[in-house]
Write a structure and sequence with these properties.
Number of helices: 4
Distance between the termini: 24 Å
Strand content: under 5%
Helix content: over 70%
Radius of gyration: 13 Å
Structural class: mainly alpha
CATH architecture: Up-down Bundle
Low-confidence stretches: none
Length: 97
């Protein structure tokens, strides 16, 4: 069951994360909110709480139409996302090298 959830997360999150990056780059507050919300929830569901908090911060920025610091938060989010994906792959025995 865990393997299925992790694989689904890894597959779905890639497109959402790409959409989030594009939204941040273009200053699209609605796009940021739309992409960050499911990433926040899905990350929390798998125990990636630090990552979920970063997505939450981006989601709130989008909701409040305040994207001024979104690029800086995205940098931290990219690192946390990469680490979370690596850890999740390790949990299900996928090659993390």
């Amino acid at each position: 069951m865990l393997e299925k959830l992790v694989l689904l997360y890894l597959a779905d999150s890639v497109g959402l994360f790409e959409d989030l990056c594009k939204a941040v780059a273009s200053g699209d507050a609605k796009g940021i909110q739309k992409s960050a919300h499911p990433l926040k929830s899905n990350s929390a569901s798998l125990g990636a709480m630090q990552l979920s908090e970063l997505f939450k911060e981006l989601e709130l920025m989008g909701r409040e139409n305040n994207t001024e610091n979104a690029a800086q938060v995205l940098v931290a989010t990219e690192c946390a996302y990469s680490e979370a994906c690596k850890a999740l792959r390790g949990e299900i025995g996928q090659d993390v090298g």
